[in-house]
Amino acid sequence: MTQDELKEKIKIIVRKIRKPEHLSADDTISLDAPKFPVLEKFPSLKEIIVNLLTDQYELFITDIQWVAPKPTTFRVILGNGETFMLTYSPRSWIAQIEGKKYYLLNLSEEESATEAIARILSYGMQEEAGAAAEGDETAAAETPGVAAAEEESEPAAAEEETPA
């Protein structure tokens, strides 16, 4: 069974189970939901993301969150867990990447923003950082004798300094 055949069977089942008044028998039911519904509400945002990444931006972006209504601000979450912000201003879009603002009206700043996004994409997956942090915790847990020896030496030093 191919994917198209499966979709067609699901559409038939959905029509049998639930038949709203506003749908006729000839209407089609779409099972393909957009990955980023925010982009349908803000077409200029999609244009900016395509300019900063490529038209294959879906490979690199995990989610786009609408953060604030005024100024209209979006958080773009990349595949490796890193984020950057896009803010709409009346003159142009502003990208805030790693704390630096890029005014995307200028071609040179747009190129700099693209390079900054490429740099944070090259950081790798967030899971690697979590595994490294766990490795540091286990290394500290494996050497409890060192911490205990340091604690014992402090009271001894304090006793030596006090006169009898």
Largest sheet, order of strands side by side? 1-2-3-4-5
**How would you state the average pLDDT, rounded?**
75
Low-confidence stretches: 138-151
Instruction: Let me know the number of strands.
Output: 5
Radius of gyration: 27 Å
What does the largest sheet look like? Answer: 5 strands, antiparallel
Strand content: 15-25%
Helix content: 40-55%
Give a structural overview.
With 164 residues, the chain is an alpha+beta fold. The chain has a domain at 34-125. Helix content is 48%, strand content 18%. The protein has helices spanning 3-17, 38-41, 43-52, 107-121, 126-142, 144-161, and strands spanning 61-68, 73-78, 83-88, 93-97, 100-103. A 5-stranded antiparallel sheet has the order 1-2-3-4-5, with helices on one face. β1 and β2 (73-78) form a beta hairpin. The protein starts with a helix and ends with a helix.
Strand and helix map with partners:
Layout: H1 3-17, H2 38-41, H3 43-52, E1 61-68, E2 73-78, E3 83-88, E4 93-97, E5 100-103, H4 107-121, H5 126-142, H6 144-161
Antiparallel strand pairs: 1-2, 2-3, 3-4, 4-5
